[in-house]
Amino acid sequence: RKGTMAGLVVKASSTHGGVPKATIELRFLLGTDYVSQEFLAGAPKQGWIEVDVRGTPGSRLTHEIYADEKVVKTRSTGTKAVNAVPFVCAAAPGLVSPLDLPLPRMLKPEARRLKPDA
Fold this sequence. Notes:
The protein is of the alpha+beta class. It folds into 2 domains: 1-66, no CATH class; 69-118, no CATH class. Helix content is 21%, strand content 30%. The chain is built from 4 helices and 4 strands; from the N terminus they run ββαββααα. The longest helix is centred in the last third of the chain and has 12 residues, at 79-90. The chain starts with 6 loop residues before the first strand and ends in a 6-residue tail after the last helix.
């Protein structure tokens, strides 16, 4: 209904010579009650991440998240990306994979002792 929202879409592109070369689109749902069933058709039950690379060659990857709901909403949300920022910034130019970065802090033994938010 007017004045409310069920999700948020954030889209950003990098360009070269005014031509988009890479685009990232983030979609956040604030629950599924008010989102059309058409939009949710074929979607995993919990969360998911899709990477769609268009070009030659192109690829599409869907990463489904299966975890306790409390974990999905707390530790896994953005933790890996935030913790990787200083290491990615310090890396040499070129492609960097997760294997090139230190073990995420959320997986270290001291982090495993933390209890999820109640």
